Amino acid sequence: MSTEKHQDTIEPSQSRESVNIGKVDLENDGEIFKRGEGLEDFRTVGWIHTSVIFLKLIFATGVLTIPSAMYTLGAFPGAINVLGWQFLNTYCAQVQGQFRHNHPGCHSIADMGELVGGKIVKEVTGVLFLVAFIIVGASGMVGVSTALNALSNHALCTNYFSIIAALMVMLAASMRKFEKLAWITWAGFISVFVAVFIVVVGVTTLDRPAAAPQEGEFDFGYHVFGSPTFAAGITAASTIFCSGAGTSAFLPVMSEMRNPKDYKKAVNWCMGIVTAAYLSFSLVVYWYCGKWVASPSLGSAGPVIKKTAYGVGLIGLCVSGALFVHVSAKYVFVRILRNSRHLQANTITHWGVWFGVLAAMSLVSFLIASGVPIFNYLLSLAGSVAFAPLALGLPGWLWIYDHADYWKGTLWQKILYALHVVLILISIFLTIGGTYGVIVQIMDAYKDGSIDSAFSCADNSNSS
């Protein structure tokens, strides 16, 4: 393996061995979106807007679920999980960015899978990517429908609110370019951040948690160390991991950056803010609410604060769902039109494919949101089934591909090589164990009535 793969940045214009897979030269073809006369310019996003898009892709769903995961694990293991998983997610995001610098023809994580493993790996990776972001798109719809329920005092059947949420998310996701979405992500991030902050302040003013019995003794449920079953523990860990694991969605955004070299800076800003917010907010909410934390946690400070928080955060919850649906739709859109002039031309085919794919992704997300309406379980399912291989396993493989000679290099190089093999093993464990755990948890929830039958009118959205 050539040592040029170990450089910090590889320019597309540099001479290198060509690796052709199908019709696309992933080594030398350069950026997927070209610039030229008659072509719609997609590469228009600056690094600050990129940072905010990354923030909105990560921050929202996670901060709403970590406090209840901490109840399962205990405060100290929960905090270690937040720091540990966020460190790994940040590192793996940088690995993906560096790999794309080395191989600029890669638009998505599936393209990277094709380069290192061929067609089969590409298709498996593509399916996992769609599964992941369709599921988290569904979680965004659950968040919006929960907000509408709270603001309206449950004036309609939950499924009617889910339909309204799906339409809101699809409308917001319909903008073709990340540059256009970037402007609403500012409002989305600020709204969710302020909403969560309102709840954090709100829980500190209560004599006892809003959901706890307001008279007499009760079990507060705060533990420094929890004692969960394997299924409950792995589900909670997977939920925390998933809260920062959507880094494979960074790559399509990177393809629309004006200067992709700014990717590393955008990731560091995003993940630094997210980690600090997740750790501080979740610890405070769990400290004051114990086992009585709601999921999503915006309902943890009582009905008045709940309505205020959901009213302020509604835009952000909608934008989160929209970004997730947009990312999954953009992947399919590029796959369909990649070798066609319609990819960057304002033709009927271009717009027809875009809106058709967007509607399909929104419909599937809606069906999942209605079938598994418990917020935590949706995110844990996404984390174990799809994000574990995408955000941990495949980046480990990508690094090994670009550093294949390290296994016979210096001692330090061998250690680095071994650590990336361990990263792949961690992803396998989390995939198998996490999927088992969340399936057990969902089955138990149906048995004990925490989840009513699919598509029922019961308000299950706040179950933990």
TrEMBL record:
Membrane topology: Multi-pass membrane protein
Predominant cellular place of this UniProt entry's protein: membrane
Top-level taxon of the source organism: Eukaryota
Subcellular location: Membrane
Presence of the UniProt keyword Transmembrane helix in the record: yes
Keyword Signal appears in the UniProt entry: no
Keywords: Membrane, Transmembrane, Transmembrane helix
CC per GO annotation: membrane
Residues in Amino acid transporter transmembrane domain copies: 44-439
Residue ranges, annotated region (Disordered): 1-20
Stretches that traverse the bilayer: 47-66, 127-147, 153-174, 181-203, 230-254, 266-288, 308-327, 348-368, 374-394, 415-439
GO molecular function list: L-amino acid transmembrane transporter activity
Family: Belongs to the amino acid/polyamine transporter 2 family.
Name of the protein: Amino acid transporter transmembrane domain-containing protein
